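Lecture notes, continued. The same structure-token format from the folding unit now serves as the input rather than the output. Read the line below as a description of shape only.
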């Protein structure tokens, strides 16, 4: 069985970039998702492009909640969720933000994103998902190349850790968004994993979560991760990132992949 491992938040900090590139060259990642407006993207253009030439897929991590210079629209996550459910978001500003981010990505790397997802999964919220799909369908000449992250769980998802958080993603829009992806024949993953409370305080604790995810994954499921080569200050999950990194680079991860009969594919 083949699945995708995607590391999010490229560009936010050099430790994230360095850790993810190291993991790719060790064969532990298939994708990285870039915050195109973040401060540490341009300085890593060449290393990322070199990695892509060797098979790394580089996508856009569409962001509406992290504040970066020149960002045209940013809201706290809770406010964004409430406004989207009430259908009170500023559609024009969301459209402008998406176009700004995808254009910045394309100018930085010289190609359209290999895939697109959303920071804190905002791309599937009501109103946002409609603008997202509208822009996607007009930006990509061939929609079959516009691979998009779905957050719907695999069919066999009993006894997953953090079940409330997992199902909340579907309630907030994941199920409807998956139907829209299928309606437009947009490629996507078959099952989404990697959701937890970012409180796995040791390698063994994070390993336990990964073993559970691997045990229920479908062929072509996606597991997201957030590694960094060292702790990052002023980041809400900055202490968790190096734990993920150390596990993913370890032989323990390789053992767990083998035991689950899983390979990391594109």
């Amino acid at each position: 069985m083949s699945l995708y491992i995607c590391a999010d938040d490229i560009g936010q900090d050099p430790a994230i970039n360095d850790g993810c590139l190291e993991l790719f060259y060790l064969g532990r990642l298939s994708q990285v998702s870039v915050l195109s407006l973040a401060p540490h993207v341009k300085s890593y253009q060449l290393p990322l492009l070199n990695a892509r030439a060797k098979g790394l897929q580089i996508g856009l991590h569409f962001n509406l909640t992290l504040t970066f210079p020149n960002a045209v629209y940013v809201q706290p996550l809770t406010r964004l969720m409430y406004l989207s459910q009430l259908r009170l978001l500023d559609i024009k500003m969301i459209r402008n933000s998406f176009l700004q981010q995808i254009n910045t990505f394309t100018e930085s790397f010289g190609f359209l994103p290999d895939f697109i997802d959303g920071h804190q999964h905002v791309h599937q919220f009501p109103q946002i998902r409609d603008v997202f799909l509208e822009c996607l369908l007009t930006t990509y000449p061939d929609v079959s190349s516009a691979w998009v992250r779905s957050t719907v769980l695999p069919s066999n998802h009993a006894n997953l850790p953090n079940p409330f958080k997992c199902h909340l993603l579907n309630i907030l829009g994941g199920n409807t968004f998956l139907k829209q992806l299928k309606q437009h024949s947009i490629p996507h993953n078959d099952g989404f994993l990697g959701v937890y409370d970012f409180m796995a305080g040791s390698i063994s604790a994070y390993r336990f979560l990964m073993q559970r995810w691997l045990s229920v994954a479908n062929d072509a499921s996606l597991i997201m991760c957030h590694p960094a080569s060292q702790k990052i200050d002023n980041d809400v999950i900055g202490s968790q990132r190096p734990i993920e990194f150390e596990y993913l680079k370890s032989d323990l991860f390789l053992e767990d992949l083998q035991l689950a009969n899983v390979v990391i594919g594109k």
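Point for the exam: The beta strands are 2-10, 31-34, 57-62, 115-118, 147-148, 192-193, 222-225, 263-264.
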